[in-house]
Design goal:
Layout: E1 4-9, H1 14-22, E2 27-33, H2 39-47, E3 51-53, H3 59-68, E4 73-76, H4 85-90, E5 95-99, H5 111-117, E6 122-129, E7 139-146, H6 153-174
Parallel strand pairs: 1-2, 1-4, 2-3, 4-5
Antiparallel strand pairs: 5-6, 6-7
Length: 175
């Protein structure tokens, strides 16, 4: 059955655009962004996807909007704000998050920097169900990315993003 998807973004929106272009089993019906002039908003316009700017603090408004749009799955793709337990309770087992580490390693912010600083040989990205613990929900699927000897934050981030572009749509299509 085709699911109605909502994507929540804070930044450039490259994962959002990738979802719209590559997820073929479901339909993105709405994108919510919490930064007024973010790249994700421009991408939504170009892709013809309805979008709305709502401040992160206005969670009640976000919940009502997602319910009004009868959303089946919410994808946090670069949503740089922790969501409340009330938000999670409103959408049980309907929220997934993309995170740039092999969870449970390096939860929260600066995961890529932490992997580099720890001299890890491999890192990656994870898609997981959202629960009340920050980046602590059940992992759905992960993709490893090797850390090369000459990697810096920029090169490693770019390779992790490429892995995300394959991982996230694959997970969404499998739900």
């Amino acid at each position: 059955m085709k699911k109605r998807l909502a994507v929540m973004c804070s930044g450039n929106g490259s994962n959002f655009e990738n979802i719209v272009r590559t997820v073929n089993k479901h339909e993105v019906v709405l994108m919510i962004h919490n930064k007024k002039e973010c790249g994700a908003a421009k991408r939504a316009v170009g892709l013809g996807i309805p979008h709305v700017h709502i401040k992160s603090a206005d969670e009640d408004q976000i919940i009502m909007l997602l319910q009004a749009w009868r959303v089946d799955l919410i994808i946090l793709a670069g949503w740089m704000k922790v969501i409340s337990p009330e938000f999670i309770e409103a959408f049980p087992k309907k929220i997934i998050n993309l995170h740039p580490s092999l969870l449970p390693k390096y939860k929260g912010l600066h995961a890529i920097e932490q992997a580099l600083d720890s001299k890890d040989k491999v890192t990656g990205c994870s898609v997981h169900w959202v629960n009340e613990e920050l980046d602590g929900g059940e992992v759905i699927k992960q993709q490893e990315v090797p850390i090369l000897p000459d990697d810096d934050i920029k090169t490693l981030t770019k390779r992790i993003q490429r892995a995300e572009y394959g991982l996230l749509p694959d997970v969404i299509n499998s739900i």
